[in-house]
Design goal:
Blueprint (H helix, E strand, L loop, with lengths): L1 H26 L2 E7 L6 E5 L8 E6 L4 E7 L8 E6 L12 E11 L5 E8 L14 E8 L5 E5 L4 E2 L1 H6 L16 E6 L6 E15 L3 H60 L9 H14 L6 E8 L2 H8 L1 H17 L6 E6 L2 E6 L4 H17 L10 E8 L4 H17 L5 E3 L3
Parallel strand pairs: 16-17
Antiparallel strand pairs: 1-12, 2-5, 3-4, 4-12, 5-11, 6-9, 6-12, 7-8, 7-11, 8-10, 13-15, 13-16, 14-15
Helix pairs in contact: 1-3, 5-6
């Protein structure tokens, strides 16, 4: 009887402690990292002059903000100006994983959409070097600035720039967002191409989180409960040793089997969505997205598609070998991905054939995008100094459905091939 009362008291006490800790963690245990005009952290600027552009960035401190003044030039294809804030000298950055979100207050003056990019550069010796900050992982998020409005950005919304992954040949194991060692934060203009004077005022940026993360606290509580449970099991083991050993063995096997199944399922899911050579989507990886885009398409804002096929690709394989052919395919996919808009989809459909899906795009717009891609491919440099062209078939996915649109685009591609290749053809209505 006394043993039962003692066990009941332990369970009740641990339950009260667990609830108290969870409440404390929810309403307290707050921590923050504030960066404002009074910061003593080193601040620098950069602009597209490094890339041959003509934009000029300057930073100054006002009474209330850090102010980036950018004289944007159209000399460079993707003009930009940036403020860099050194959080900690590399290779020793700041671990931001214990923070949940970023609160900030910015204002923006200038032409065009007031889009801003926030970069958190992570240093990892696996792919980073001290001398080249561009080798630090580019975790990024883009947003529209509303003057004077406090903005909250969850850290889990950050992603890694796909062009950076491709440019730096990052291994697949390091594709994910990593905020474990961040030496540098960058505030940048958000891809605006409007020349003129741009001014971004940063009143404050505050990283917010908990001294003890909810996951860690739950793990600690779980450990406490596990200790209690082990104590109970040991007491039961005294009486039911053989039976308990059997139960624990079966439970352990189930846990291991379940974990193995989850890992295998995740691995298969990830592999199934991407083409392993070009790292763009494959057919199965795009199915749900295209179904959603078809459902959202309207007569005035249709979903267009472009089939593009490398001309004489077999001759490249026959002349230079499949190794060069694979390099051509990888660069071809990278070229397509870097010259479409945000929200467009690039899919390797099979062999040297790729399909682009363009939401909210009318046929004449899709035709122009295809023509721009055709010119870019023709003018680009390719492995082994080979000359490369591609043919394009353009169609709109209408009420007749996906199969009809694919058939129409394929016929347009065939017409482009028949007319001499290196052409763009629009499917006939």
């Amino acid at each position: 009887m006394s043993a039962r009362i003692g066990l009941s008291g332990l369970v009740s006490g641990l339950f009260v402690l667990s609830i108290a800790l969870l409440i404390w963690q929810h309403f307290g245990m707050n921590k923050s990292l504030l960066i404002d005009v009074n910061t003593t952290l080193p601040i620098s600027t950069s602009d597209d002059r490094f890339d041959g552009g003509g934009s000029i960035a300057m930073v100054r401190k006002t009474e209330q903000s850090l102010q980036l003044n950018c004289q944007m030039s159209e000399k460079y294809e993707w003009p930009y100006c940036e403020i860099g804030i050194l959080l900690s000298p590399a290779p020793n950055g700041i671990d931001l994983r214990s923070f949940d979100n970023i609160r900030m207050k910015l204002s923006y003056k200038g032409p065009g959409k007031h889009r801003v990019r926030l970069f958190l550069r992570n240093y990892n010796p696996a792919y980073s070097t001290l001398k080249e900050s561009t080798s630090w992982k580019l975790n990024e998020i883009q947003f529209i600035v509303e003057d004077g409005v406090d903005l909250s950005l969850p850290l889990h919304k950050f992603n890694v720039a796909s062009w950076w992954l491709a440019d730096k040949n990052i291994p697949l194991d390091h594709y994910g967002v990593d905020l474990s060692n961040v030496p540098l934060m960058i505030i940048s203009t958000g891809g605006n191409k409007e020349a003129g004077s741009h001014q971004i005022d940063v009143e404050y940026i505050e990283f917010q989180g908990k001294t003890i993360r909810r996951e860690d606290l739950l793990m600690g509580i779980l450990v406490l409960w596990s200790v209690l449970a082990i104590g109970v099991l040991i007491n039961m083991l005294y009486q039911l040793h053989q039976r308990l050993n059997l139960i624990r063995s079966e439970a352990s096997q189930l846990v291991v089997a379940n974990a193995s199944l989850k890992e295998e399922k995740q691995r298969i899911t990830d592999q199934a969505k991407l083409d392993p050579l070009t790292q763009v989507r494959n057919r199965s990886g795009i199915r749900n997205d295209i179904a959603r885009e078809m459902a959202n398409a309207t007569e005035f804002s249709p979903l267009s598609m472009i089939i593009c096929d490398i001309d004489h690709f077999k001759a490249i394989n026959d002349t230079f070998g499949h190794g060069v052919g694979d390099e051509v395919l990888m660069k071809f996919a990278k070229t397509l991905s870097s010259h479409v808009r945000h929200g467009d989809y690039v899919v390797r459909w099979g062999g040297e054939e790729f399909v682009l899906f363009l939401p909210h795009t009318k046929p004449e717009q899709a035709l122009q995008i295809a023509e721009n891609l055709r010119q870019t491919i023709e003018e680009s440099r390719w492995p082994s100094k080979t000359t490369l062209t591609a043919s394009f078939g353009v169609a709109v996915i209408g009420p007749e459905g996906f199969s009809k649109a694919m058939e129409a685009a394929d016929m347009a591609l065939y017409a482009a091939k028949k007319a001499g290749r290196n052409r763009v053809e629009l499917a006939k209505p």
